[in-house]
């Protein structure tokens, strides 16, 4: 399916906000300050806006899904930061070569139909001495385990390339740094989280639709998984979520 149509399913902002901490932390840690930044598959712009807030010299946010970019544009205006939003496929970005010190992508580049093509484009956009930094869900973290829980329902689905250091390096090459990180995701309850994903996360909406009457069983498995992965904290439920940060020097 066309990625713009796919990612416009549901209201991504609702679920994307649950996992926006890694992007905000990335913008602070890199740091983005003083750099020209391009954020690929920016979605609702959390990482791009964080880079602008951390005084990047310039920020471009690229995404294929127009409704998500509209949210991003509105949020940047509200935050009072300047970001250029480009509606484009990350495999072919209409922006000059060597124009960024930093090309970032939080949980976005991993969805490229052809990762090698997206990486080649990311390299083209990066000037010599710059870096490409992207995040992915680790196989041992919550989202890796959600995928693994649903995998038996989709025996023909391709294996992801971004859940382990070894798999990432096999795509990106040996000069790659991969670090494991964890952030805490706060939700109302395991049930509310799974139902929120079912309403607003495009992969889960589409997956549940394809499952038909098998969805209630899958939902119960996901609720059990989430419950075992976190703990209650007053009226909230907190889950430590593992992810990987990959850095390529250009
Ligand atoms: C899981 S979301 C991540 C969004 C955002 N980076 C974040 O951290 O919340 C994946 C994003 O990849 C975008 N995307 C998927 N395929 C794309 C493509 N070929 N070109 C550009 N963006 C794409 C989707 O529109 C969506 O915004």
TrEMBL record:
| Record carries keyword Transcription | no
What Pfam families has UniProt attached to this entry? Methyltransf_25 (PF13649)
Q: Which CDD domains does this chain map to?
A: AdoMet_MTases (cd02440)
From its record, what is one biological process in GO terms? methylation
GO-annotated molecular function: S-adenosylmethionine-dependent methyltransferase activity
PANTHER family, per the entry: METHYLTRANSFERASE, N6-ADENOSINE-METHYLTRANSFERASE TMT1A
Kindly provide the name given to this protein in its UniProt entry.
SAM-dependent methyltransferase
Provenance organism: Nocardiopsis metallicus
